[in-house]
Amino acid sequence: MRVFTLLLLSLTAIAQEAAQPTAPPATGFPGLDHYRASRIAIYTDDYGQLARYRDANASLTPPAPEENRVVFFGDSITDIWHLDQSFPGKPYINRGIGGQTTSQMLVRFRQDVIDLQPKVVVILAGTNDIAGNSGKISDEDIERNFATMAELAHVHHIRVVFASILPVSNYTPKSQEFFNSRPMSRIVDLNDWLKGYCAAGGCVYLDYFHSMLDDKGMLKRDLADDGLHPNQAGFAVMAPLAQKAIRAALAETPFNPEN
């Protein structure tokens, strides 16, 4: 009996130890390592962060019959964007969450996009995938996540605008790690894929990238203080481009997957 009890206690201790979240492996980027370690509870308890907008979504009324509701869906670049200032009077809804990757965004796509019944979704994502915020991921798997979001939207008659991944720069001390963890070659490759997918798949491609690029092939210094997140000047460049893409999406015939 004593042996059985000791064995049971040992197994219980092992199970409890295995259940404890462990720090993610080091990436070589101190800021990113600290960020990932700080997110362990989110990654284990609410990977898609469904709690963030659950109450706001519940209080949102259905769109009016003639309302051109648009959901801006993305990461911190969307999260910090004051849509009411850039698009005054427009029925545009912000559903950005800082730090998220496309894998996390897929988890909340139904709650934060489909259930809101928009006519258009503007998806801006991918930079955090490249950095490895929620783990290493190949370009092919990022592309599959993008494609899955588009397919889900199309099934629910939501028109899709895919925004290009923004360029990055290393002009300031606080921009160095953002720049080094986001190779420009991957940004360019994914943007090329997005552009081709949109042309073939009935989506609108929103090219922020080239309008924000300087003569050195980086994000213009005056558009982002940290080399990644647009400032007021950056959003001033992005807003008219987004509005043009939304108009194009609204003017298109809704995608029919049976055609």
Number of strands: 5
Q: What would the principal axes of the Cα set say about the shape?
A: globular
CATH topology name: Rossmann fold
Average pLDDT works out at 90
The main β sheet shows up as: 5 strands, parallel
Features of the shown structure:
disordered C terminus; single chain; Rossmann fold; five-stranded parallel beta sheet; alpha/beta; 259 residues
Give a brief description.
By secondary structure, this protein is α/β, with parallel strands linked by helices. The protein is built from 13 helices and five strands.
Characterise this structure.
The protein is an alpha/beta fold and 259 residues long. The chain has a single domain (26-251), classed as Rossmann fold. Helices cover 47% and strands 9% of the residues. The chain contains 13 helices and five strands. It has helices at 2-19, 30-38, 40-45, 54-59, 76-79, 83-86, 102-107, 109-112, 127-131, 139-155, 176-180, 184-201, 232-251; strands at 70-74, 92-96, 120-124, 159-163, 204-206.
Secondary structure topology:
Blueprint: H1 2-19, H2 30-38, H3 40-45, H4 54-59, E1 70-74, H5 76-79, H6 83-86, E2 92-96, H7 102-107, H8 109-112, E3 120-124, H9 127-131, H10 139-155, E4 159-163, H11 176-180, H12 184-201, E5 204-206, H13 232-251
Parallel strand pairs: 1-2, 1-3, 3-4, 4-5
Helix pairs in contact: 10-12
